[in-house]
From TrEMBL:
Ranges that cross the membrane: 12-29, 41-65, 72-90, 102-122, 143-161, 173-195
Protein name: Inner membrane-spanning protein YciB
Family to which the UniProt record says this protein belongs: Belongs to the YciB family.
Chief place of localization: membrane
Source organism of this protein record: Rhodobacter calidifons
Length: 202
């Protein structure tokens, strides 16, 4: 069932807002230590814990406004809750940083599993929004699988070798920007596979 249309600005705020708030809170309290229940938590862990309810509230608001919720949103929400909980339980920020690797890695594995069966799962998810020939979907799926795999590997290298502050900046801005630019380039490169709307020809 198709979802209801909402203002694109509101949609972007709800989708990107929680991550930006996490970044701003982290930058504000990154050098602080907070004692909760007799345990000391770093500013990073506190910011990560604040992100969890913010993200859930944003997804719930999107569901109320559109009447639908994507599988990807559900998966990301589950990952944030699980790894946010592990981060708090073990008081170890590494769990939250691993989340990004697992999210991107899982997307790569899902797309790869579809390709092994000769199918494009992207086409199944996005065909209504982006009409394209099957050959184009297979090319895009294959390339996006490698992109997700590359982001997963990059995240592992960054959080294991660089500072937390640099990881937060790259996680918030660089990785989403890289994925966005990659997709824009692919859509332009695959124009020959696009299916024109008959109404556009008239």
């Amino acid at each position: 069932m198709a979802g209801r249309k909402i203002n694109p600005i509101i949609k972007q705020v709800l989708e990107l807002g929680p991550t930006l708030v996490f970044f701003l809170i982290y930058m504000r309290i990154k050098d602080e230590t907070y004692t909760l229940g007799g345990t000391d938590y770093s500013g990073f862990i506190v910011a990560a814990l604040i992100l969890v309810p913010l993200l859930l509230a944003a997804i719930f608001a999107l569901w109320l406004l559109t009447g639908t919720i994507s599988r990807m949103q559900i998966f990301v929400a589950v990952m944030v809750v699980v790894f946010g909980g592990l981060t708090a339980w073990f008081n170890d920020e590494r769990f939250f940083k691993m989340k990004t690797t697992i999210v991107y890695g899982t997307f790569a594995l899902i797309l790869g599993a579809g390709l092994l069966r000769g199918k494009s799962l992207l086409q199944w998810v996005m065909s209504e929004a982006l009409p394209m020939k099957p050959e184009g979907w297979m090319i895009l799926t294959r390339r996006l699988m490698w992109m997700f795999a590359g982001l997963a590997v990059a995240n592992e290298i960054i959080w294991r070798t660089q500072s937390t502050e640099l990881w937060v900046k790259l996680e918030t801005f660089a990785m989403p920007a890289a994925l966005f630019l990659f997709l824009m380039f692919q859509f332009m490169a695959l124009q020959r596979f696009m299916i024109e709307d008959p109404e556009d020809k008239s």
